[in-house]
Amino acid sequence: MEWALTRRYGIIMLLVMLAVQLVAAPIRGTKNALTQGGARVVQNPYIRLSVDSEQRVSVRFDASGKGRYKPGQTMIGAYGMTSNGRAEIKPGGVRINGSRYCIPGAAKGGYPGPWDHGEDLPVGGSLGQRFTVPAGGGWLSDVWAQLTCSGVDNSSVRMVLRKDGPAGQIVASRLVKPLPEQAMVRIGLSKPLPPGAYYLEVGEKSGGAYWWGCNTDTYQGGMAYVSGKAQPGKDWVFGYDLADVGTLDWELRLHGNELLCSYNLRQHTIKTFTPALALSFPWTRDGYDTTNLATTPFRYLTTDSGFWFPVEAFKRNESDWNLLRESKWARLRGTGGYDLKISHSRTGLETHMEPDRMHMLLGPKSRLQVLPNSDVLPDTYPRFFTSDKKTSDVMDRFMKTFLFWNTSCPSTYEFDALKLSWIGGPEHTGFRNVVQFYTNRCDPDGYIWSRPDSRGWNGDSPTNDNRHYDNNCPFILACWDIFSWTGDKAYLNATIATVRKATDYLLDVQDGRSGVLTIHSPQHTGITVPQGFTNPSSYFDCIPTGYRDAYINAFYAPALHASAELERAAGNTARADELDRLVVVAKQQFNKTFWDDAKGRYISWVDSSGAKHDWGMTYVNTIAATYGLADQQQVKRMYDWMENQPTSSGAADTFTRWVFAPRSNTIACTEQANRLKYDEWCEDGGAILWTAFYELMSRAKYLGADNSWRRFKQILARYDMPDKLCGGNPMYRGEIDNRGDGPYGPGSVGVWGEFPESGLAPCAFLYGVVGLRVDIDGLHIRPNLPSELKYAGVENLVFRGVRMKVTSYRTHVTVEWAGHRIDKPLPASGEITFTEDVFKPRWCGCLASVDMKQQWGIVSLQSA
Question: If pLDDT is split at 50, 70 and 90, which confidence band does 406 have?
């Protein structure tokens, strides 16, 4: 009896102790109201929150759950915080009351265009724009004007911001020297100013200085001025940013390996803007180094929406619109011994970088989850590999850095399709949906719109035909690529009518039955005139091509073939046969019209007067070669020109000037719209990354695998430099990327930001080395290995709904999927074709049918 009482007493005491623990720590493993080194601390085995004497909150993590928190200076607070508020330790967390903040750029105003002329600043005078920041909204944080020096070196102006009008008090001033060519020139404010009337003035002209404007009173919120005199019939192109100013209360709660973050907004000035908390890491924005773990919080991040960004993409940026991607969460592959999964509860991942801090913005119901380090990615992410591990690592990172996003403009849909049709996941699905959306952006005559919201590149205009005419061919090619990879009959049925209309536009409106596409528009003649230039007709929108454009025509024969394939898949054999006959005509006429035998290359365009224009456009030649419009001898001659003849720089540097891609052209284009110097613009002497795809593919096809691979390794070596071709300006070798950020001038190269088509470049490995090709008949594999590789392959490729791994060897191809494997010897032709049925056989236990084995020469077969 005594023993039983003792046992009961022990059990009761144990229950009491457990109850006390539950009351004292309502959230598992949490310790409250500790004081360490003068700071108030709350923690559990995974996460430690510390509040210092200035009410700032720092956070440390331990993914193992042993309370061994990693050192660091990661902070959490209201983004744009100007006053920390008052912090108090709560059971299992921290609450901060009354945090005040100010966030510039929360809203915009002004007149961003369109414009119809550049107003010359009067010597000794000024141009000005009066505007009003409406009451009840945000506070003015900066102002900009659309200015240009029109190519005059060492030009300068002074920008002045005044209150009220031309005679008002000066509140900010900036000497702009040198004045850039065609730029949004900003004047920032040391602190935001309240709503009211303001006056932006540009004067003290030196050299060339123009303010772009409109000769009609389009902007209703103000008045244009010339030397202090109002101009009721004019407006200058300008804009301003507004800051949201407000107060919020916020809370952090520990929940196992998660930190739950929330806030309540007390008041703010811009009702359409959503403020944020900020998870802030130590950071060095400037420079190129990402090896210092104290200021490099992660190696890369991934998102649920399919993006992959290396840490280098965030360097030397205050922020980058390219990183603002829709997602629900992002996982940071951390450098401090743990990963963080950030569920931000905002529309998308948003980051802002200061000189010594990186901020990741968190919404009103967000959470952080601390996880063990892992480099394992979801199956939606593909992987490139070779027998050379070092090369494989660089190649795979190169691919992931640029692959995972697409444009919304059909002029680049062929590029997007080549890089996204073969992967699975949200980016593939999103791109398919975007292409299908353009079935609703097709005019009755078959013209595919330039943008989702307008037929023209710069909006619709009743007087100015600013349409791009390179939309139809890429749209057709993209529909074919998507269907060939997916075999989706529903997608074919949804797009075939638009494909047919888009093809008829090429045949009938643009005279495609003759074999050459012709633009019949008085503003796309390709003839430059003293007053300006004809509207650009394609992706290369600063080059005044028109009428018969070699770049647009280079895609014509491939688009005809694609249209024929889709018609055949839809059961329209007669139409398919007709289009196939026209493919032959298009190839012949392309060479007859654009090949210059004396120069050994294709020219740039033929204007409506019959005059030929040739600025040595490298991309025209490599695209034509890749799509089989040129023969072996022509390709050898064009590469002799590109490799051995001097460019306008005076050196034979077509491939060595920028390394990652050839110069866009070898001869300075005096007709280009920006009138920039050769080398200063990505379309004139500069380089654009995606063009490397067509260079590598044409080399592989005509000059051999070793030739192409040597060049590929040069590109990979440039990518592997500290900026990884994606950090902010200036880039590692001094290049200026055309991303429009900061004080930098025109973009000498096009790589990041507005160039999602850059992801095409690494795909030359998939198509040119592994040797993949698809059409309606199936998946074709023709290995094209350089001598230094034993094998090359891709993992997580998706063909007709089947996720697989493909490895190309010199003698055979291995395909693995869902626990199955086929080793197929290469036939004499060097190419193997796999139909969809191969990957969806009728299995009986672990054995395939005898017919299957005989048909495919299966060496080994493993069942799941």
Answer: confident
